Input
Amino acid sequence: MKKILNDPYAYVDEMLQGLCAAHPQYYRATGEGRRVIARAGEPKQGKVGIVSGGGSGHLPVFTGYVGKGLLDACAIGDVFASPSVEQMADAMRAANGGAGILRLYGNYGGDVMNFDMAGDMLEMEDVSSTTVLLADDVASAKLEEREKRRGVAGMVYAFKIAGAKAEQQADLAEVTSLAQRAADNCRSIGAALSSCTVPQAGKPTFEIGDDEMEMGMGIHGEPGIWRGGLKSADDIANEMCDLLLADMPLSRGDRLSPMVNSLGATPPEELYILYRTVKARLDALGVEIVMPLVGRYATSMEMAGVSFTFCKLDDELEALLKAPAECAFWTV
Amino acid sequence: MPLNKANLSQGLKRIATRMEAEADTLNSADGQLGDGDLGITMVRGARLVTEILDDLPDDLGMAFMKVSQAFTKTSGSSYGTLLATGLLAAAKATKGRTEMPWAETSGILGLAIAAMMARGKASLGDKTVLDAMEAVRRATDGLEDPVALLITSQEAVTAALVEFRGQTNKIGRARMFGDKSIGLDDPGMLAFKAIVDALA
Output
């Protein structure tokens, strides 16, 4: 796999330098090793701070979603590696407006251990914080063991909804409760057509044949449900819809925002081919579609493939999803 | 004299010196059951602790937090994060105080064990550092003389190592070794023994 880079060990730092240089109106680098991206300007006093964090390699997740109506700060690790406790604590410090902090991120063991530790450290500094974990990948564990599922693209909805609630000057308990409701209402499934390459590893994370695909693969190449011959767009979309609907049954009159997301290399053209089927399936159920998202929202480097996320909405979640938000990658 | 900044600082210095001497032993013990870097983790943490000894805060809670932070900076090691978690439990328990009676040692160890169990998802009996700490917690309950505390702690750690040597490791990477872990000392327990020995 060919990559454009200088030094694989400087990959993340150089990426962050470029990100801040291109979009200084949104981002500033701070914290231990300059591995925290915070909103440009000082934290807004009296507003709940929302922080996320995790490994690099998923832009716009997590870093890209720092912005008004979204996240306040984000700690960034190496590609697919957890940030350090210090970096997570620094992200929380950068987001601290005196009204408490929500830690909102994906359910991965190393991230959870480090973020909990960072929360304990901030507690010593008299900063209160809460945690909401995204665990939306239906392929990663059965419904009965939902707490074991990995967090994937559903976190974009949680960032958006919690971020909008925090902008309304809601208190930490309210922001946390909304974030949890958004997280609980999200289901995602991915399918990969090709691997990605971690720069420091220098070779593809996994091997997959030119004519093969893998259903249910995770965003770091975690094994999925099945691997076999590449299917047609309609068959892929139908199977992914089946998996999501089996996990979160929908009925007539339900409201939902669907996301059809490229894992990196898959072009928007193919996402729109897939979206036809998503629309048809939801229409057939009598489900009302709100603000469909089709594009590159959560990626795995140069992996070819797609993920679907369904986020079920109620009046409040819908209003918060539609509230204004702005970052370099997404404007609502 | 109760625990205060001065004797905490002395104790940390002795632990740091001891870790340099034990590094190779800990690395090779860890090499048999893990990834072989426990000595490196302990030395890196100890060196960062040494750097902060001169400006250790008077508030014991803040002092323990500084020590905890030194171990969080040894990122990449779950043992470092777990030690930091235990130290942070001690920090919370002593926040705002410049002195701590020695009689609280056993209780604070209990708080550290509980926090580390929650973070590392390990149970007592899994053959981890927690079993060595629990042995010390039980043996030192009610003790308030620092000399008696140390002698009792050393005996308890040694007895725990003997007790668990014949068992299998039940969690973490060492678990993969199954019956091959019988007869081997858990590296995390050895590191805790080195800490106790340094103070005695």
